[in-house]
Every structure is written in C-alpha cells, then in structure tokens.
Write a structure and sequence with these properties.
- The chain is mainly α and 132 residues long.
- It has two domains: 76 residues; 33 residues.
- 86% of the residues lie in helices and 0% in strands.
- The protein is built from five helices and no strands.
- Helix 2 runs antiparallel to helix 3, helix 2 packs parallel to helix 4 and helix 3 packs antiparallel against helix 4.
- It starts with a helix and ends with a helix.
Length: 132
C-alpha cells in the first residue's frame, strides 16, 4: 500500500507514520507471541484458529473504515495479533493431523504458501497501481 498515492495522500503520511503503519502488523505479531500459546492450549486448536480469523476480519473492517492514522495503526496491530494466533494454531494443528512420514512436507508447504501469497499480493497491488 505504501506505493499507492491515494493512501499516502489520504493519511498525509510522513516517513515516521509510514514506518509505523508498516511496522504495526509486526508489533501485533510480537504481542501475539505472548497470548497465542496459552490461548490455544486453553481453548483448543480449532477455537484458536477461529478466534484468530474473527479478530483478523474485524480488524480488516476497522482498517478499511479508518478515518485517521491512529485508527489505521490500531487495526494493523489487531491484524498482527489475529494472524499470529492463526499461524500458531494452524502450524500445531497441521503437525498433529499430518501423517508422520509427510509432516515435514506439509509444514514446509504451509510456510511456503504463506510467502507465495504475500509475494503474489505484492505483484497484484503493483499491477493494479499500474492499471489505474
């Protein structure tokens, strides 16, 4: 999103606020490191996945409706927390479900697909900017 002029102009971003907007997801991910394990152990893997997904979806709505930088950053932190909970729960869930002989391939594919999805979203965003 940092390359979209409409985004940077709407929020009147400086270098500092641009960095904060970008880092906010990682801040949420760091926070989730303290919360995800105990939450998933207490509520279970499937419930952990559900909680992470619901939190991410609510945060996406907040981010989409953001009227100022503070609202946007809070939404990004919540997205980071939700994604952190999801990734923790999904990795453990996959490790428990995958057959022993294929566990390393399943978990490797899960991690690879995460980065393939990120890369393809960057390509899509860049192409959308070039089109419009």
């Amino acid at each position: 999103m940092n390359i979209l002029p409409s985004y940077t102009e709407y929020f009147a971003l400086t270098t500092a606020t641009l960095g904060l907007n970008t880092a906010a997801v990682n801040i949420g991910g760091a926070i989730s490191g303290f919360v995800a394990g105990p939450l998933i152990d207490k509520l279970g893997r499937k419930n952990g996945i559900t909680i992470g997904c619901v939190l991410s979806l609510v945060a996406i709505v907040i981010q989409t409706a953001a009227q100022n930088v503070a609202m946007f950053v809070i939404a990004r932190v919540l997205i980071g927390i939700g994604v952190g909970i999801e990734n923790t729960a999904i990795a453990v869930f996959l490790a428990e479900l995958a057959p022993y002989n294929y566990r390393d391939y399943v978990l490797g594919a899960f991690n690879d697909c995460w980065y393939i999805g990120q890369s393809s979203s960057h390509v899509f965003t860049t192409n959308v900017e070039l089109i419009f």
